[in-house]
Amino acid sequence: MGTINISRKYTAKQKSYLPAIFVGLKITMKHFIKGFFFRKNVTIQYPEVKRDYSDRFRGMHFISVDKNKTENCTACFLCETVCPADCIHIVADEREDEFNPDGVKKEKKPVSFDIDALRCCFCGFCEEACPKDAIKMSGNYEMAVSSREEAFYDLDHLKRDIKGRGKIV
Amino acid sequence: MEMFDLIQMVAKVLLVLGVCLGVLPFIIWFERRGASWMQGRVGPNRVGPFGLMQPLADVIKFLSKEEFSPREVNKFYYYLAPIVALIAPICALAVIPFGSKAIIDGKEVILQIAPMDTGIIFILAFAGLEVYPVILAGWASKNKYSVLGALRGSAQIVSYEISMGLALLSMLIVYGTFSPQEMVTWQSGTFLGFLPSWGVFVNPIGAMVFWIAIFAETNRLPFDLPEGESELVAGYHLEYGAMKFALFFMAEYVAMIMASAFISTMFFGGYSLLPGMAEAVNFISNHFGFLETGRQNVKAFFEFISIFTKVSFFMFVFIWVRWTLPRFRFDQLMDLGWKILFPLSLINLVGVTIAVYFLNQ
């Protein structure tokens, strides 16, 4: 083993560097003209323009609601059980009948439904486990907060109004 | 000294300093945005229209930062380095002619701050000073990365100064003079019937060697080993903050302007009119009915435009090359300097000497 010396045969043209340098200069000039005259670039001007992620992107959680703004969650604890990061905490209670106008009996309801976004690993297992399609992950990736408390999502926050997948446009 | 001499001298100094320092923010802006365009990015575009106010914001930041120096540094040399870095290239600009002469109030004004016969020696002396800020800053900082950068930098600048000097010497033999004004006059003719008799056409190898050596002298990529961001953090100016760093930063660009002006004067005809400008001078003079004096002043104006264009072009090439080529390794740098450029310039010098000897007979 040890050092392996590889020797290549270079032509005089390659040895003199200069032709290769001019090729390089031509390429950068092409890019310069593209950027300067045609304003072509790959930068996304972030706060004004948002990156378009795929529909499968797993961002900030939300809980879907029916037309009465009642959450679809029945506090079955499947998400809490499956969560590998142990970041979902549900307190269940019985649900009154008047919240089921269509006759679909949702027997239980979550009294509190807390997600600790700082622990969450955004694996999406909760979304897959949910039998009621209640807990979902939106396309919102702007999850920066200015205090630790804001990163604990409670039921009110999770039931916020979300259109479609909740993508940032 | 008469009053007129004093006024015209101060006016010339102010003009050169004003233009040179006035275009600095624009060059820095262009460096950053040009880099972005070449890399498919946008670059700073938030401060002012097109981000043009960005350098101003930078200056405000530099000025309002805390002025501090590390405990262990040698204070005198530590503070001396950025001053020398900025002063040296500005002084060298004094002998760059930016026009033949203007006639004001019946008196001739030579458009050069210091019209001296040994102008090239003067430039070389101050270009040679550029090694001092590097080694002073590195050594006084008491930082191992700074010292490494300074050692590399000084070795590099000293090595490339030899090739630069030899390339220059071959041109001095061709021109037969040390005075920049006479060199430009020599270059304002034609060569082989159709080319302007610029040094680059008369002595292309010399021009190439000089051009490469200039990059090493100004510590620009591909020869920015004294800084070497990825290896030495920032090299010799690692321990400098606030306005002291800003001075180094400005010095780099002033040195680039000086180098561009130097190569324009030596190899690209200096202030001699670009093709088409002579016709423009004639047209304007005839249009306004200027006589000899007015015609000369219009010509001087166009000569200034000419050298300004040339310097701008070379500044662009500096930036263009920077974003094209990666940094040389240190042994590659020394190989290029000592094994290729040094023999090449030496052979070129001998060849030019023989050619000039036989052509002058």
Keywords:
heterodimer, A: three-stranded antiparallel β-sheet, two-stranded antiparallel sheet, B: 361 residues, mainly alpha, two-stranded antiparallel ribbon, 3% strand
Put the structure in a nutshell.
The complex is a heterodimer of chains A (169) and B (361). In chain A, 22% of the residues lie in helices and 14% in strands.
Helix content of chain B: 55-70%
Low-confidence stretches of chain A: none
Structural class by sheet pairing and helices of chain B: mainly alpha
Shape of chain B: globular
The CATH class designation of one domain in chain A is Alpha Beta
Task: Tell me about this structure.
- The complex is a heterodimer of chains A (169) and B (361).
- Chain A is α+β, with helices and mostly antiparallel strands and 169 residues long.
- Chain A has a domain at 61-158: Alpha-Beta Plaits, CATH 3.30.70.3270.
- Chain A has helices at 12-15, 18-37, 78-82, 125-129, 155-158, and strands at 61-63, 88-94, 108-116, 135-137, 152-153.
- A three-stranded antiparallel sheet of chain A has the order 2-3-5. A two-stranded antiparallel ribbon of chain A has the order 1-4.
- The termini of chain A are far apart.
- Chain B is mostly helical and 361 residues long.
- Chain B is built from 15 helices and four strands.
- Chain B has helices at 3-22, 24-38, 54-64, 75-92, 119-128, 131-140, 144-175, 180-187, 199-202, 204-217, 229-232, 242-267, 277-288, 292-322, 330-359; strands at 101-104, 107-110, 190-191, 195-196.
- Chain B has a two-stranded antiparallel sheet with strand order 1-2. Chain B has a two-stranded antiparallel sheet with strand order 3-4.
- In chain B, helix 12 (242-267) crosses helix 14.
- Chain B is globular, with a radius of gyration of 22 Å.
- Classes of the chains: A alpha+beta (169), B mainly alpha (361).
- Chain A binds chain B through residues 21, 24-25, 27-29, 31-32, 34-36, 40-43, 45, and chain B through 34, 36-42, 320-321, 323-325.
